[in-house]
Design a protein that fits this description.
Blueprint: H1 2-30, E1 43-45, H2 47-55, E2 62-65, E3 79-80, E4 101-104, H3 109-120, E5 126-129, H4 132-138
Parallel strand pairs: 1-5, 2-3, 2-4, 4-5
């Protein structure tokens, strides 16, 4: 009889561990997705979320450095457009107004301005990296520097 209970508890423990492991795996994937954007606005994302998104195999967003003057960039940056010239560089932006666009600057002020401009231009999935490159570095991530 004792042997039966031992097997029961062993199987139950393995089951609990399996559920716990699967739950942990699904929550890490959920953190690597872009949040919903309120209509007529943009959403802020953390540098941790951006880092996870940049590691994803199916990356589906455009990452834009809008800081001036140039002070480095987050690795994986697609475009460098000055925050106050977004409208002038519409030809470099995605034609699809529903395409996800992530903007950042050094601290967040310029990218907030750029995010509002993108929304005014009709883009519906605009994201601002909270704290910009400063937050990126504080979180332990490195910047890269291209020839400027």
């Amino acid at each position: 009889m004792k042997r039966g209970w031992t097997y029961f508890f062993l199987i139950a423990a393995v089951g609990v561990l399996a559920v716990w492991a699967l739950a942990g795996r699904s929550s890490s994937k959920a953190s690597a997705s872009l949040p919903e954007v309120p209509a007529g606005s943009y959403a802020d994302i953390s540098v941790e979320t951006l880092s996870a998104l940049l590691k994803a195999e199916d990356r589906s967003f455009v990452l834009i450095n809008v800081h001036i003057p140039y002070a480095g960039e987050i690795p994986g940056t697609d475009l460098k457009i000055p925050y106050n010239q977004i409208a002038a560089f519409q030809d470099k932006l995605p034609q699809d107004k529903n395409a996800p666009i992530v903007v950042y600057c050094r601290s967040g002020a310029m990218s907030e301005y750029a995010a509002r401009t993108l929304v005014e231009l009709g883009y519906t999935r605009v994201y601002n990296v909270s704290g910009g490159m400063n937050a990126w570095q504080r979180a332990g991530y490195a910047l890269s520097f291209s020839d400027r």
